[in-house]
Amino acid sequence: MAKKAKNARHRANRRIGRAARRDLEDAYVTARNDEHVAQSLGLPSTPGGWLTRAAFKLFELDEKCRFLTPQGKRQTIPKVVVDLGAAPGGWTQMAQSAAEGDGDSRGSIAPPTLFALDKLPLAPELAYQEGVNFIQGDFLDFEVQDHLSSRIHAVTNIPLDQPGVDVVLSDMMANTSGNRITNTAASLSLVMAAHHFCLRNLKVGPHSWLVIKVFQSEEAMRWRKAVLERCFDSVGTHRAKTSRVTSPEVYWVCRGHRGGGHGALEEAGNHESGF
Ligand SMILES: C[S@@+](CC[C@H](N)C(=O)[O-])C[C@H]1O[C@@H](n2cnc3c(N)ncnc32)[C@H](O)[C@@H]1O
């Protein structure tokens, strides 16, 4: 009898927990367009609202790791930021706003030159904005990656043989199916492609960053250990509070690009051919 009552209490608590989390998720949706709700949750607001609630994930990650709004004299302000899987543009908005300062304690620094890429179109109010360079295309297509690299060099005037990007952000995710294995494999292909792009385009040194969404899996963790952890000084895992509780996504925040040395390129080749 006592056990039955305990189980019933446990089920009720779980239901309340789920309901509370759903309410919080709804609040994040409202916070996109309601500055009072945003303020009550400790989130920034922007005139006209954020295009996606995902914008808050980038805010949270940057609050923790400070790749867009560096603090402390030793850190440098990013000049060139690439936003992969950018549509409709919540992260692009947040990357701009974080740099410009949004009236709170984040201060005011010159906005970086942004390069946004997605298969889908970016919201028109962003796509044609000064400082935002948008390319529509499939990032898994090498020609599209080359096009993005050429555009970065053309706009920034950085010589072709030098990497010119300070921060690569990737919120890319292919359409998910009910199959976890397919979803994690699709996620890892995008992560590998973003890393491949970093090898040519991300500056080498302590102030460069790759911030990337991944669906965690054993295969992803093996690849991270064999390749990513050799190519960066540090790799951390962060789960955004604003991610849906049901989502398997986490973000890997990689700091201090070392380039493709340390045997990482051979490992990358082995993994890509075996995948
Ligand atoms: C979660 S959404 C990104 C939301 C975005 N960060 C925002 O705040 O507006 C994931 C995006 O990844 C894009 N994507 C997925 N696979 C891609 C690929 N191979 N090439 C380019 N974009 C891709 C999708 O089109 C989708 O817009």
From TrEMBL:
Entry GO CC: mitochondrion
Signal peptide: none
Keywords: Methyltransferase, rRNA processing, S-adenosyl-L-methionine, Transferase
Ribosomal RNA methyltransferase FtsJ domain ranges (all copies): 51-256
Coiled-coil residues: none
Pfam families: FtsJ (PF01728)
S-adenosyl-L-methionine among keywords: yes
Gene Ontology MF terms in the entry: rRNA (uridine-2'-O-)-methyltransferase activity
InterPro entries assigned to the protein according to its UniProt record, in alphabetical order: RNA_methyltr_RlmE (IPR050082), RNA_MeTrfase_FtsJ_dom (IPR002877), SAM-dependent_MTases_sf (IPR029063)
Superkingdom assignment: Eukaryota
Family to which this protein belongs: Belongs to the class I-like SAM-binding methyltransferase superfamily. RNA methyltransferase RlmE family.
Protein name: rRNA methyltransferase 2, mitochondrial
Natural source organism: Jaminaea rosea
